Give the backbone structure.
Amino acid sequence: MTAPRLFPCLMAFAICAEVCAQRTVVPAGGDASGNGGTMSWTLGQVDYIANGSASGTVAQGVQQPTEFLVLATAEQNPMTRSVHVMPNPTSDGITVQLSTTPERAATYRMLDLTGQEVATGPFIAASAYIPLAGLASSTYVIHVLHDGTETAVLRVIKD
């Protein structure tokens, strides 16, 4: 090929390569396959083009899915603010401290994450010590009860 014909061919190739290719620099990526099929994945999103019209918008390029979770929240019991757990996290045991000496019978129930009761007992004056040395490292939930009515729910992390 002569030089006058080579230049237009190279220009056409360069323009076509720029128009047709997606470009991105990602820290990781790969292909995965299984019984359901195959897929390609990339980690990170660094480049995309949004094309919009009156009927909608399409994002072309490297994209990541977005998932929104709505969590229900229970109303805060005013008694919960007057109950403290220390130390948290712990490895040996915890002290559950009420802000005042209860007028009614106060007890606690401690459950593991499966809902199994692992400890229960009364408050002596305004505190209760719960030994955790024999329990597995996990998160536990403590229910504080006054005359059988739940007044506080606390989470404890055992190292």
